[in-house]
Amino acid sequence: MLNRTQQTLQKIASAKVLCLGDLMLDRYIYGLATRLSPEAPVPIINVKRKTHMPGGLGNVVMNVKSLGGAPMAVGLAGRDAEAETLKLLLEKAVDPLSPPLIQDPDRPTTIKTRIIAGIQQVARFDEESQSPLSDQATARYQQAVLSRLDDVSAVVLSDYGKGVLSTRMCAWVLDQADKRGKPVVVDPKGSDYGRYRGADLVTPNRQELALAAGRDIARSPQEVLTEAGLELMKRHGLKNLLITRSEDGMTLLLNSGEVRHFPTKAKEVFDVSGAGDTVVAAMSCALAANLSLEAGAEIATLAAAIVVGKVGTATATAKEILDSLSQN
Question: Phi then psi for 45, rounded to 5 degrees?
Answer without folding.
Answer: -100, 120
